[in-house]
Amino acid sequence: MATPIDPIPQASRWRPFVWTGLITVLAIPLIAMQFTSEVDWDAFDFVFAAILLGAIGIAFEFSARMLSGPAAKLAIMGLVIGLVLIVWADAAVGLF
User: Fold this and answer.
1) Residue 92 class from Cβ within 10 Å (0-12 exposed, 13-18 middle, 19+ buried)?
2) Which band of pLDDT confidence, cut at 50, 70 and 90, is reported for residue 5?
3) Radius of gyration (Cα) for the chain, nearest Å?
4) What pTM does this model have?
5) Residue 85, H or E segment
6) 6: pLDDT strictly greater than 80
7) Average pLDDT in the chain
8) Fewest CB within 10 A of the end CB: N or C in the chain?
């Protein structure tokens, strides 16, 4: 008996949620700037954050398409998120 072909690959099902979530994270400082003066981002800050968040999205795409096991996918995503958080912390307060 032939197996049915999945019309929408698993990675494609999660793509809109991942990218929408990343855009939402980027929009939080923009919204906060409307209500408080403690958040003061300029265009460079938004571009920098978009690049870092884009790296997370691209890593998700890569891991979903290229890696087969869930453990490998989680390892790559954990590594990328960890690296992004280190870069973000260093850029924000000069931690390192």
Assistant:
1) exposed
2) low
3) 17
4) 0.70
5) helix 70-93
6) no
7) 81
8) N
